[in-house]
Amino acid sequence: MLLTLLLSFLLASDSPGQSKPDLKTPYEKGNGNQTATYAEAIEWYERLDAAYEEVKMMPMGMTDAGRPLHLVVVSTDKDFDPASLHQKDKRILLIQNGIHPGEPEGIDATMLLVRDYLQDKKRRRQLDDVVLAIIPVYNIGGALNRNSHTRTNQNGPESYGFRGNARNLDLNRDFIKTDSRNARTFHEIFREWDPDVFMDNHTSNGADYQHVMTLIATQHNKLNPTLASYLSGKMVPALYAGMKKDKFPMVPYMNHAGDTPDDGIIGFMESPRYATGYTALYNTLGFVPETHMLKPFGQRVQATYKLMENMIETVHRDAKEIGALRARAKEQTLQQKTFPLNWQLDTTQVSQIPFLGYAARYKPSEVSGLDRLYYDRAAPYSKMINYYDTFVPTVTVEKPVAYVIPQAWGEVIDRLKTDKVQLRQLQKDTILTLDSYYITDYKTGQRPYEGHYLHAEVQVETRRMPRQFLAGDYVVYLNQPANRFVVEVLEPQAVDSYFNWNFFDSILMQKEYFSSYVFEDLAASILRQNPQLRQQLEARKKQDPDFAQNARAQLDFVYRNSPHYEPTHNLYPVGRLMQEVKLPL
Question: Residues 534, 490: one domain?
Fold first, then answer.
């Protein structure tokens, strides 16, 4: 009898939900207004790893702070191989915290959530087909730069990290340009694990309102149509319904159409510099939860917890459907012929959404004496407001068979390799006739932005021309899972192209010039031999009085239309191969 009781006790201790090690989090041990430090978070996950065979914490690569970026995987069948998990038709949910460590509720909420799911039989069963992959703290340098003042408008916690990383980069602007070691490590994680769903937990700035949680979902117009239909028609409504049931009614992220939410809000078109803009390039359903900065920290932690709980429930419920839709979307991306590069809001398309706000009023400022905006919490309201969430492409491009990239552009090649883009190299010098772009116009920001002077409004002229490529130059065929990523970074007109992020700027500077007094006689000879060019010059002088009075400008006009002008000035180095040809690979 004693042996039977002892055996029963041992079996019960080993069963899920029975063994509950002491895993109280730093948030729980505090006063409700404290968040875990980086060291506390990592130490807590180490204890979680030691307590559960279903948990594995792995250092994945270095960050700019000189500390490794950790990935914590929760897999109830104790399989931690992403390829194997996908073969088993598991859904992978990647949760990222602390990209902005001053917005830390995701750090604390995720610790609570993981522990509770492992210790609760009912919720634990949802993890049988949903694997959690967690980045406990992404911006380690920012987390170590702890203070109590830089989130000026935020209601707690008592202390927190800083937005900039160890290089003072905003990592939520670094996903495409990949200047930081953090981003390079993230790309390796993301491409290896290929998550079905991605969540990047944040806190909002902006207006005051009653909602604790707002949400950015991947902008549906730029998502693969198969996934967009599911996202907008089923997944997002399920999350909204679940959060309403949990007494945290949500609203889309407060991107105002005017000064206040009363004027309506605009869907957030996240370009690939942002987390969910990047993940959408690989047909991952992406979400950025944004809790409201003015709500108490405890409410923000609880709302983040509940949204992640609803996300797991939804992914568990639709696990097979999400897997099938992603597989179809990936195949469609392989076959896709044209790609949009830029978007604009369609203001004719508008819907109405429920909103819980506060009346916006004005009163004299004690600082300036002028009128200032404030939100009157004594005047809450519930009403429908306009929601603009339809974007249309303004620039599209036909997919080439392949891009050809001279090996000289090492920064570009390194970034493609980081993203596991399939590259091949020419084995001998080769002349290829292909489409090439000349950059005819662009605008450049006058102030630095995340370490760059960003280009925009790029205009190109396409010329089909023979070009010399060298042994070792790279060929990127557009027949791979990274198709959309490759187009977004190598097409100069794409909003976050490598051209716009300055990786090709040396082509924009002319290297050879002329001395006016020497070129005068040669220019006259060129015009005598080319009457059509003379006519163009005279027409330009009539149209532009300043040009007519500028002798150097007129000589430059002749120079640029002569064989003496260098053909590589403004020539975008990446060629577009538009038809299959046999290459020496």
Answer: no
Q: How far is CA 117 from CA 95, 122, 131, 447, in A?
A: 15, 8, 12, 47
* 311 and 425, same domain (yes or no): no
Residue 154 lies in a domain: yes
108 plus 247 within the same structural domain: yes
Q: Is residue 433 located within the same domain as residue 548?
A: no
Tally the domains of the chain: 3
Q: For residue 417, what are the domain limits?
A: 393-510+569-577
∠ CA 490-492-495, nearest 5°, is 100
pTM, two decimal places: 0.94
**Residue 581, beta-bridge partner list:** none
Same domain, 457 and 538: no
**Does residue 133 lie in a domain region?**
yes
Cis peptide before 157 (omega within 30 of 0): yes
- Asked whether 305 and 107 are in contact (CB, 8 A), the reply is no
Residue 210 located in a structural domain? yes
Tokens standing for 355? 């909103």
In order along its 585 residues, the chain shows pLDDT tens digits of 444 444 444 444 444 444 567 899 999 999 999 999 999 999 999 999 999 999 999 999 999 999 999 999 999 999 999 999 999 999 999 999 999 999 999 999 999 999 999 999 999 999 999 999 999 999 999 999 999 999 999 999 999 999 999 999 999 999 999 999 999 999 999 999 999 999 999 999 889 999 999 999 999 999 999 999 999 999 999 999 999 999 999 999 999 999 999 999 999 999 999 999 999 999 999 999 999 999 999 999 999 999 999 999 999 999 999 999 999 999 999 999 999 999 999 999 999 999 999 999 999 999 999 999 999 999 999 999 999 999 999 999 999 999 999 999 999 999 999 999 999 999 999 999 999 999 999 999 999 999 999 999 999 999 999 999 999 999 999 999 999 999 999 999 999 999 999 999 999 999 999 999 999 999 999 999 999 999 999 999 999 999 999 999 999 999 999 999 999 999 999 999 999 999 999
Residues 23 and 118 in one domain: yes
Residues 255 and 133 grouped into a single domain? yes
Distance CA(565)–CA(555), nearest Å, equals 12
